[in-house]
Amino acid sequence: MTTALIYLVVMMLVAAVVFLLASVVFGRGEELPALPPGASPTRLPADGISAEDVRSVRFQLVVRGYKMSEVDWVLRRLGGELEDLRAEVDELRERLALAENEKQ
């Protein structure tokens, strides 16, 4: 009788561990709509990224940290925005230099 009780307790513990592991891995059973291919829940404006936009960026958490594809996407977008801004600053500096040369 004791052996059967021990087996029952062990089976219940194993079932509880498997249930908890499945709950952590698969969530609470809520179904989210599927994202279109290549889409990301991370949001940035199409252009004119501001400091507040960067501060408000949140990444999806996965088992080992943030989702790398989202982080890479944000870094590419910010890099492109920085390149655009630097090109605009260089152009304005050239115009300023030309305007100063014309005055002389």
Account of the protein in words:
With 104 residues, the protein is mainly alpha-helical. The chain is built from 3 helices and 2 strands, in the order H-H-E-E-H. A two-stranded antiparallel ribbon has the order 1-2. The chain is rod-shaped. The model has no long low-confidence stretch (mean pLDDT 81).
Secondary structure topology:
Blueprint: H1 2-26, H2 51-55, E1 61-62, E2 65-66, H3 68-103
Antiparallel strand pairs: 1-2
- Adjacency order of strands in the biggest sheet: 1-2
- Write down the overall geometry: rod-shaped
Note the main sheet: 2 strands, antiparallel
* End-to-end C-alpha gap: 106 Å
Number of strands: 2
Percent helix: 55-70%
Assembly type of the chains comes to single chain
Element-level helix/strand string: HHEEH
**What is the number of helices?**
3
Task: Give the structure's gist in a few sentences.
Helices cover 63% and strands 4% of the residues. With 104 residues, the chain is mainly alpha-helical.
Keyword list:
104 residues, mainly alpha, two-stranded antiparallel sheet, 3 helices, 2 strands, 4% strand
